[in-house]
Amino acid sequence: MRLVATANVESGTILGKTVRNDKGQILLSEGVELNEKMLRRLLLLGITYIYIKDSVTEGIEYIEVLPDSVRRKAVQTIETTFQELQNDSKFDTSFVIEKASKRFKDLIRQLLFELKNNENLLTMLADVYTYDNYIFTHSLHVTMYSLAIGMKLKLTPKELEILGMGAILHDVGKMKVPFDILQKPGKLTDQEYDEIKRHPEEGFQMLRNVPAMSLIVAHCAYQHHERLNGTGYPRGIEGEDIHQLAKIIAVADVFDAVTSNRVYRDAMLPHHGLEILFAGSGTLFDPKIIEAFRKGVAIYPVGITVILDDGRKGVVSKQNMGVSDRPIVRIIEENGKDTDPYELDLSVSLSTMIVECDTTFPKNV
């Protein structure tokens, strides 16, 4: 299968991977022949990339790090808790979060189990899912990325649990922000942006007095928009004044934000998201955390077409653990011409570099 921009897909193409919503409902099944109406619908739902079947990528399969059943349960757990906080004023905030804390701890253990027992680098391709509310899915993705970083940094089990809890709840303060501001498709006014910028402090106040929860979790919510050089918010703290776990969540938060579809812009591909993190390394983000992220998260997802510095074109067929920017590539084109496919391991061919990704519609489908 191959990952292609939905806008480039031609009618009659066979879908390579089932498209679901975040409740697990199938929108389009693997193997269906796509028509213009289906493709328009996918674009309207904000799905900018899909997997398609073609002859030269036969046998290349995208393997979910997180099974659909676990993903659905995770999003539902987050959604239920957040909606209680948002909609039911008769509940005390501390009571709602206290009640949810055991469910969240069980969820974090499940997510850690999936990460530890999967031989593939973490990929959370949000584009093959559609969702009703970005915050719930975003909270899950940030948790997965944060735990992947934490594992590479060799955090203790207790630290990973606190990190997971802080990541799940990092945006809980957004439940105090009007929905029409959160979902506004156009540019925010200064007043609306100020309203958004209050969510870290709102989250801190909601979490700081929950008896069953470490105070560090509250500080993760408070500090995930702070930056090393003091240019973040809400307090403009810097360097060592920012807790390490909040620094981890900051990296995960930015990466998922730019690689997910939003109401005001389309998703970037993962390698572009990493470029944004690298651009802020040492000034905005901790370089050690970015390096741990690079080792644990797939920058070039299986199925994406890449162009190498010698002009060859291929499709990523497999990941190499610990070197996310050096995958195994199935070469399909040399010197501008089709070639008999063969595998090239970039972790061995160290002089060869990926210079570009190509999500146009393949000519040989």
From TrEMBL:
One of its GO terms (molecular function) is hydrolase activity. InterPro entries: HD/PDEase_dom (IPR003607), HD_GYP_dom (IPR037522), HDIG_dom (IPR006675). It is an enzyme of class 3 (hydrolase). It holds the Pfam family HD_5. This is HD-GYP domain-containing protein. Keywords: Hydrolase. Residues 113-309 form the HD-GYP domain.
